[in-house]
Specification:
The chain contains 3 helices and 5 strands; from the N terminus they run H-H-E-E-E-H-E-E. With 153 residues, it is of the alpha+beta class.
Length: 153
């Protein structure tokens, strides 16, 4: 079956191939067109790179979605980041996130790990609701995942 997560990569690579071939064959002497082709080719390469790295399991520095289910975590060698595996809401595929290794985050992830090992599923939330950007700074909070008698949280 076709994995739709790969669609941006395939589309960008096909577009890149078509553009490069057209430029190489027909417009190799026109400088103005080369100024358009180079940024488009770089954009396609960037899109392909981001798509593949997000799919290969490398930790990404993005905000962990609210109500994600905690699976496991480890600390990197220099102690600056925690790599946290979670199940995102609505998706049943684990994803690896990189978060800052603050004392609070370490404590919360250790708590989640201990509770998970005892059979109590853990969800991840955040203390600070406003944490935009690539840095993913801020503190996370873990709490017990519970299902009521009607199957709702």
């Amino acid at each position: 079956m076709f994995d739709y997560n790969l669609f941006p990569f395939f589309a960008s690579m096909i577009l890149l191939i078509i553009i490069v071939l057209a430029i190489g064959v027909h417009f190799y002497k026109n400088t103005l067109i080369m100024f358009v082709v180079i940024p488009v080719a770089l954009f396609c390469a960037f899109t392909g790179y981001n798509t593949i790295t997000q799919m290969l399991g490398y930790p990404i520095k993005q905000e962990i979605p609210e109500e994600s289910l905690y699976l496991n975590h480890i600390e990197n060698n220099d102690g600056t980041e925690l790599y946290v595996w979670v199940l995102e809401p609505e998706r049943m595929m684990p994803k690896n996130y990189s978060i800052p290794a603050t004392d609070s985050n370490k404590k919360q992830m250790q708590r989640a790990k201990g509770r998970s090992e005892k059979g109590v599923s853990q969800q991840i939330g955040k203390y600070n609701k406003h944490r935009p950007g690539e840095q993913n700074s801020g503190e996370y909070l873990t709490y017990d995942f519970s299902v009521d008698s009607q199957g709702l949280k």
